[in-house]
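Q&A log
Question type: sequence-to-structure
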Amino acid sequence: MDSISISHFKATCLAVLERVRQTGLPILITLRGEPVAQVSPPPPPEARAADSFGCMNGTAREVGDLLEPLPADDWEALR
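Response status: OK
Response body:
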């Protein structure tokens, strides 16, 4: 892993960030030889579905007619 001093990082911040983006390698930033921070590339984006509509298709099942009234025996209030 490459390392640079904090003063050099301050002077060339955008160039260092572009280098990390292009190479994908992290850079260690030091202050008087001691590590202070590490600049690393972000993790790869998560794979997402192209469209959220229909993403739950096939995850549920219909067990009966949802519009049919319940029989009187199934109502707790009538017991």
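Response note: The two ends are 74 Å apart (CA to CA).
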